[in-house]
Specification:
Elements (H helix, E strand, L loop, with lengths): L8 E5 L5 E5 L1 H10 L11 H12 L3 H34 L3 H8 L10 H4 L9 H8 L7 H10 L2 H9 L7 H6 L3 H11 L4 H24 L13 H12 L7 H22 L9 H6 L4 H5 L7 H32 L8 H13 L5 H4 L8 H8 L1 H21 L7 H27 L11 H13 L1
């Protein structure tokens, strides 16, 4: 093994934000004592060393701390490598560098207060990424390098930053798997402005993909946690044969290309509605990739890119303002209900909201902090489903009224038809924001959704 030093050299950021590699003498001495011939033996693998270090980590205190430091040093090198790979893969195209990614990931100082050994006992909410990786590491499922790579890419802060730059971490095949034909029709029509013929072909293609690829995946019991791989040549042949029955004639290679194109179109839509930045080289592209709502609002007579770009900018600003005002309206209304004997619930309610949405604490952890006995009492106090439903209703009302004022139609029947289209599209987009927040209810760290962020912003103003 020629790189044994990665088990005692820690990669971290200095005060100026630059990479600094620090030799940890205690880790070096321990490693060389445990593996004296490692540097000269090229047959010694990281897997065998990590297996021994994991055993040592769980032994008595002094040995365990030293072994953990060796593992955290190794993880720091892997984190750095993952960030470099992401930079090389996406950085130039999306306008970020590896240094931007280091800020979110290289945050370990080997402070024993934040070690795996002490993480359950410490009251500090801060936990370095390397400690999180080591806590979750399961040697039987993957080696530590692979585990680290996956965990870094799943880091919420990093994912949020990358999404803002237009990088959405999900494979084309997973996107196609969880999109139905009705959604495809709406997205391609409203967001990409495709023709009815193009939309119909895309629906046939997606239905064929579901009938073959998704069915195979479920049949082979690969749907739980397994990564969606590129369709095999055999699957592409079957998809081609299936869609040919509906007069869509494509060779297997053409089928693959069309599936990849469809997935990228869906990816662009998901990035946009999640608040990410789209790659736009020109105003023409900006007009093509604008928010789906504009298709229901901007008339054919007003089809120039400048007006479309202006509408999208105004729409996005109004959407956030509507979200903020709806949050304030709904929470204020809820607080007004806490009167008389229920007055003590008002501070409990705002504190629980903050702990859950802003600090990522679980309901069971929140309960004793607001003088309640059990998780169900916090759930009953917050009534998150009801809260989200009220916010949705308020947003839909305000956004519908604002959007209708942007329409330049004099014909009453056309206006009524467009009104239904707008309400449907608005409802679906608002649901995306609220669905993202709902998925976090079962997760301890529920601070990353757009709704959570805006609730926290309101609570800051409220306090």
């Amino acid at each position: 093994m020629r790189t044994a030093s990665k088990y005692w050299n820690l990669v971290r950021l200095d005060s100026s934000g630059k990479i600094k590699i620090t030799e940890i003498s205690q880790a070096k001495n321990f490693f060389q004592e445990q593996f004296p011939c490692t540097s000269d033996d090229e047959n010694v693998t990281d897997v065998s060393i990590q297996s021994d270090l994991m055993v040592a980590k769980n032994s008595y205190q002094e040995t365990g701390i030293k072994a953990e430091r060796c593992l955290r040093c190794f993880i720091s090198h892997q984190i750095r490598q993952v960030c470099i790979q992401l930079d090389m893969q996406f950085g130039r195209e999306h306008g970020f560098s590896r240094n931007d990614l280091f800020i979110y990931t290289l945050n370990d100082t080997l402070d024993d207060r934040h070690s795996v050994r002490h993480s359950s006992a410490t009251k500090s909410r801060y936990k370095p990424l390397a400690v999180e990786i080591l806590e979750t590491f399961e040697p039987k499922k993957a080696n530590l390098a692979t585990w680290t790579s996956r965990y870094v890419k799943q880091n919420r802060e990093l994912q949020r930053f990358l999404l803002e730059q237009g990088v959405y971490f999900i494979s084309n095949w997973a996107i196609l798997n969880d999109t139905n034909t009705k959604q495809v029709a709406r997205i391609l029509s409203e967001f990409h402005n495709l023709t009815p013929t193009e939309i119909e072909q895309a629906q046939i293609l997606l239905a064929g993909y579901h009938a073959v690829y998704r069915r195979d995946r479920l049949k082979n019991r690969q749907g739980k946690g397994g990564k969606c791989q590129t369709p095999t040549a055999e699957q592409l042949t079957r998809i081609s044969a299936l869609i040919e029955q509906q007069d869509l004639v494509l060779s297997p290679s053409q089928t693959l290309s069309r599936l990849e194109l469809l997935a990228e179109q869906l990816r662009e839509y998901r990035i946009q509605v999640r608040g990410g930045r789209m790659k736009q080289e020109s105003l023409d592209n900006a007009a093509k990739n604008t928010e789906g709502m504009q298709a229901a609002v901007v008339s054919n007579e007003a089809d120039d890119s400048e007006e479309r770009s202006s509408f999208l900018q105004s729409y996005q600003q109004q959407f956030q303002q509507s979200l903020d005002s709806s949050i304030e309206e709904v929470i204020t209304t809820r607080l007004r209900k806490f009167k008389g004997k229920k007055a003590a619930k008002a501070p409990q309610f705002t504190t629980a909201l903050e702990l859950f949405h802003c600090q990522g604490e679980s309901m069971s952890a929140i309960a004793p902090k607001i003088d309640l006995q059990a998780q169900y009492q916090v759930t009953r106090l917050l009534k998150l489903k009801e809260l989200r439903a009220d916010i949705r209703h308020s947003m839909l009302r305000s956004m519908r009224n604002w959007t209708l004022t942007q329409i330049k139609l004099s014909d009453f029947e056309s206006l009524k038809q467009r009104e239904q289209e707008i309400e449907k599209a608005l409802g679906e987009q608002i649901d995306l924001v609220l669905d993202e927040a709902e998925k976090e209810v079962s997760i301890a760290d529920s601070t990353q959704s757009i709704l959570a962020q805006r609730i926290c912003a309101y609570l800051d103003r409220y306090h």
